[in-house]
From TrEMBL:
This is ATPase synthesis protein 25. It is a peripheral membrane protein. The lineage of its organism: Eukaryota, Fungi, Dikarya, Ascomycota, Pezizomycotina. PANTHER family: ATPASE SYNTHESIS PROTEIN 25, MITOCHONDRIAL. Residues 36-47, 302-312 have a biased composition (Pro residues). It is found in: Mitochondrion inner membrane. It comes from Karstenula rhodostoma CBS 690.94. One of its GO terms (biological process) is mitochondrial gene expression. Belongs to the ATP25 family.
Length: 348
């Protein structure tokens, strides 16, 4: 009995101590410093493992930026740009409108060039291959991708390269250093889409040269717009720098076109001035002819003036002078005078 009573006493003492601890006020330390009571911490709830949790909804990714279309774009150009930027995942797209260049580029007349950048060599080849298959399947276009390695061709070339390196290692050779063109790492694929339908307002929308009436000869120029997609890796794009090349060509063409427009405007002004002068001269001539063609007014007949009588000549008898050689005849009656003339003679 005594042994059974002792454990009961110990259990009662422990319960009393716990009740005293719960009912006692704050400790002397907490009361001295006036600290707030400790927060009540709930026990951790059982959580689901990560593979049973609901995944958060994925945030919509930002679409790749597509450059502005040139004036009078082909109807298919927007679709091609969206595929290259969003589906193929190309970056840094640029568009060069080379339709108005004269002479045209070597890639073809009425050309629109698209330049884009791939993330890696593998991304470049996969995107170019899928782009060509997409054009052939969806739009029935026979695209030509220069520099593209086929799906099995790349494996064959890599296997041959590894075999060649193994043979060099067996004879003590080393792999050549530097950027050597081995036909595998091209870094540049030129995908020529071909001719597509032009915009109705585009000059290239009309009939092709050689289809009109009266044409004699051969011609392979077809209507439409040529599309070329230049795909690069980042290093190859910086090395090739097609932006500087075609940007300079376009600036030179715009400058020459501006000069030609100024010359044409000056010629038009000269022609307008000459036409205006010709119109003024023709107007003056027409007015002169109208004046000449007018009937003259009929005037009454005017009698001719009476002729003036001729003046009658008046003769004056000259008067004799003092030394006249012939004296007055009335003086001959005087004999004395005659004698004097006979003896003295004539006065000088």
């Amino acid at each position: 009995m005594a042994a059974s009573e002792q454990p009961r006493a110990t259990e009662e003492d422990s319960t009393k101590d716990e009740s005293l601890l719960e009912e006692t006020p704050e400790s002397s330390f907490d009361a001295a410093f006036d600290l707030p009571p400790l927060p009540h911490i709930e026990p951790p709830k059982p959580t689901l493992p990560w593979y049973l949790q609901n995944r958060p909804a994925p945030e919509p990714t930002q679409a790749a930026s597509i450059p502005d279309l040139p004036p009078n774009p082909p109807p298919l150009l927007q679709t091609l740009l969206e595929y290259v930027a969003n589906t193929a995942g190309m970056d840094d797209l640029l568009i060069y409108d080379l339709r108005h260049l004269d002479p045209p580029p070597a890639l073809g007349s009425s050309l629109i060039m698209i330049i884009c950048t791939a993330r890696s060599e593998k991304h470049l080849h996969v995107s170019a291959d899928r782009f060509c298959r997409y054009l052939r399947r969806e739009h029935h276009l026979k695209a030509n991708a220069a520099g593209l390695l086929g799906r099995n061709e790349l494996k064959i070339k890599l296997r041959r390269k590894a075999k060649r390196m193994k043979m060099l290692a067996n004879v003590g050779g080393a792999e050549p250093e530097g950027n050597i063109d081995d036909g595998i790492r091209t870094g540049w694929i030129c995908c020529t889409v071909g001719k597509i339908q032009a915009h109705p307002d585009d000059p290239g929308f009309g009939p092709a040269r050689g289809e009109g009436e009266g044409f004699v000869g051969f011609s392979d120029v077809k209507p439409g717009v040529n599309i070329v997609v230049q795909m690069f890796t980042e290093e190859k794009r910086a090395e090739t720098d097609l932006e500087t090349l075609w940007g300079g060509v376009l600036k030179t063409h715009e400058r020459n076109e501006g000069k030609a427009e100024d010359m044409i405007k000056a010629l038009d002004e000269q022609i307008e001035g000459a036409d205006l002068e010709a119109e003024v001269a023709a107007e003056d001539k027409r007015e002169a002819e109208e004046i000449k063609s007018r009937p003259e007014p009929v005037s009454e007949p005017v009698s001719p003036p009476a002729p003036t009588p001729a003046p009658t000549p008046v003769f004056n008898t000259p008067r004799p002078t003092a030394g006249d050689a012939f004296p007055d005849p009335s003086a001959f009656n005087n004999r004395q005078q005659l004698r004097r003339l006979h003896t003295v003679g004539l006065r000088v």
